[in-house]
Design brief:
By secondary structure, the protein is an alpha+beta fold. It is built from twelve helices and seven strands.
Length: 350
């Protein structure tokens, strides 16, 4: 909190402020956090828990046709269930969001999730639909049967390069559509039985957090936050969400390679020491035993100056990624790096 926002206090009881702060992020119109709203005439799936607007080429889903099988994850914000769509036998993940929400907030969430449903990329978890059932907001997501990559150790560099390529492909897609993740970390990277890696919680959690609880929206996972997001004195208080995602990506890739979190902290849960390590120490590096390409790749991600960090498109062309790609992957990536088509949401929200 900045000094101007604090209530006046007696100078005798004035406490020294810590140098490191975790400020409220400023909403930047060019970044889709939350995403811009569609026209007010857009349909909303919040009007009924039993039917939803039909997506092109897909049959309508009724909430009553979904059966919960088991819980696959939970946290302070909600619970995720594995569900089956009985008419088709297809599996989904159903994210149930805790809390009671005012009508205006609920309607905003519904309209924003309708936009998220248009996000479609092989390395991004698909958001299929949203239901407002008995006062609970429930989001229907693609089911990833391999779970998250949290705790995974990948010392084999070609495998790590393929993982990096898939994540960067998803990040490039999101960033080209002005969507910032803000909480990239291993637990938000999911894998399926076909070895496809997909980015999860790229929009829903950010939208819900910022809409429902402004205090929580500023606190992603501190361990993977970039220095300039933690300490506003760095980079003159300016925060580039795209560069922040790249820092978090780099920390995650280095963690996969090392098999441990790359920052040294005296004891678990010592957030003050961790924040000091991120903001004041030299960025972590890949060990000398790693290849020159991997060491340089990590360094391109973990530049202290956000302006010097490579973006997703540049990293997809880095030798560490390119030299470990098959001919088909090179061809597909060249097509992917073409400029994206214009977004309907940008024109509709202006």
């Amino acid at each position: 909190m900045r000094p101007g926002n604090q209530p006046p206090t007696n100078s005798a009881h004035r406490r020294r402020k810590p140098d490191l702060t975790l400020p409220m992020p400023q909403r930047v119109p060019s970044l889709a956090v939350p995403l811009p709203l569609p026209p007010t005439s857009a349909p909303s799936s919040s009007s009924s828990s039993n039917s939803t607007p039909t997506l092109s080429g897909t049959p309508p889903l009724n909430f009553s046709s979904l059966e919960r099988l088991n819980r696959i994850g939970s946290g302070s914000g909600g619970t995720v269930y594995k569900v089956i769509h009985r008419p088709t036998g297809k599996l989904y993940a159903l994210k149930v969001i805790y809390g009671n929400h005012e009508d205006t907030v609920r309607n905003q969430i519904c309209r924003e999730i309708l936009i998220l449903r248009d996000v479609d990329h092989p390395n991004v978890v698909k958001c299929h639909d949203m239901f407002d059932h008995n006062g609970e907001i429930q989001v229907l997501l693609e089911y990833m049967d391999g779970g998250s990559l949290e705790g995974t150790h990948i010392h084999h560099e070609p495998s790590l390069a393929d993982l990096s390529r898939q994540i960067l492909s998803g990040l490039f897609y999101l960033h080209s559509r002005k969507i910032v993740h803000r909480d990239m970390k291993p637990s938000n990277l999911l894998i399926n039985s076909r070895k496809q890696v997909k980015i999860a919680d790229f929009g829903v959690s950010r939208i819900l957090a910022q809409t429902m609880d402004p205090c929580n929206s500023s606190v992603g996972t501190i361990a993977y936050m970039s220095p300039e997001r933690i300490d506003t004195d760095i980079n003159h208080g300016k925060y580039d969400g795209y560069a922040g995602d790249i820092w978090s990506f780099g920390v995650s890739i280095l963690e996969f390679y090392l098999g441990r979190f790359p920052f040294a902290v005296a004891k678990p849960g010592d957030w003050a020491s961790l924040m000091c390590a991120i903001c004041m120490s030299h960025p972590p590096e890949a060990p000398r035993t790693a290849s020159k390409e991997l060491r340089d790749f990590i360094a391109c991600c973990l530049q202290r100056d956000p302006a010097k960090r490579w973006n997703a498109a540049q990293l997809l062309r880095h030798p560490f990624v390119v030299h470990n790609m098959t001919t088909n992957q090179v061809s597909a990536q060249a097509h992917q790096l073409l400029p994206p088509p214009p977004l309907f949401s940008s024109s509709s929200s202006s």
